[in-house]
Amino acid sequence: MKKFLFISILLISIFSHLFLLSTKSYAANLRGVCFIDSKNGWIAGDYGTILHTADGGITWKGQSTASKEYLLSIYFVDLKNGWIAGENGTILYTKDGGSSWTIQSSGTSEHINCIYFIDVHSGWAVGDHGIILHTTDGGSTWVFQKNNITYNLRGVHFTDNKNGWIAGMYGTILHTNDGGKTWIVQKSKSDNHLTKVYFINANNGWIIGEIGTILCTTNGGITWTLQKSDTIANLYGLHFIDINNGWITGRRGKIFLTKDGGTRWEEQDSRTISNLEGIYFVDYNNGWAVGQNGKILHTEDGGIIWKAQNK
């Protein structure tokens, strides 16, 4: 009887452990999301979490990687080629849609907070203590780009292989018009930490940050204007589909929509109080937001209704 009881307890312990292992990645905080079309998308998060969907999020499946780092940013240029950046200099690359992920050598142990590519060859990554990395061969080699910033850099976005912007701590905004050979400081009119940057073209762009900060430019950053957000929440996720329509996510489930380029921002009901760190739309209707404790939200009507998706 004692032997049977011991075996039963042992089996329960083993299955409980396996269950925890199988669900750990899905309960992790999710940091970034990227979709190629209304069906195919990927999410990156803590503890090496990578999720993929081929049906618009009806089902999400984990993808394997050797990394157990916090993965902070993800970007795909097509159905096959994608990159992920994370803590301790982590850069991952896939050439088969995530069926396999390989580690690329970033040359740094600093946290890499954001990664962005304009095609399968040219990309940039930014991180702590002013780190700016650039590749022209899809990440086979990454080189450091010189700048005079020592603050943490949080967001990067390019409109072509020449024009790009970076956002970071203490209101830092950097701009290049030569692919990063030179980076010039732009005046942000804010001392708040900035988290994300997004440009629709070489003139029109937005930057978000802590304490409800939203900045806008219509001249490539020569001047930046503060936009009214009506929130003091920290803002984390930013995405526009055209010069008028864009969304922002933030602390405690905040989601904001603009239909006029940010002249007015309207809060949407996310139905969650979890921090939402990433957002991506493929058109005016279909979008996804991801965040704390494995939260995945989806909308089919531009955010009028947000629904949780199962992992």
At the first level of CATH, the class is: Mainly Beta
Helix content: under 10%
- Structural class comes to mainly beta
How many strands in all? Answer: 28
* CATH architecture assignment name: 7 Propeller
Oligomer state of the chains in this structure:
single chain
Global outline = globular
The overall pLDDT average reads: 93
Radius of gyration using CA atoms only:
20 Å
- Number of separate helices: 1
Short recap of the structure:
It is built from 1 helix and 28 strands. The chain has 311 residues and is mainly beta.
Give structural notes.
The protein has 1 helix and 28 strands. The chain is mainly beta and 311 residues long. The protein has one domain (2-308): Methylamine Dehydrogenase, Chain H (7 Propeller). The strands form 7 sheets. The protein has a 4-stranded antiparallel β-sheet, with no helix packed on it. A 4-stranded antiparallel β-sheet has the order 5-6-7-8, with no helix packed on it. A 4-stranded antiparallel β-sheet has the order 9-10-11-12, with no helix packed on it. The longest helix is centred in the N-terminal third of the chain and has 26 residues, at 2-27. The chain starts with a helix and ends with a strand.
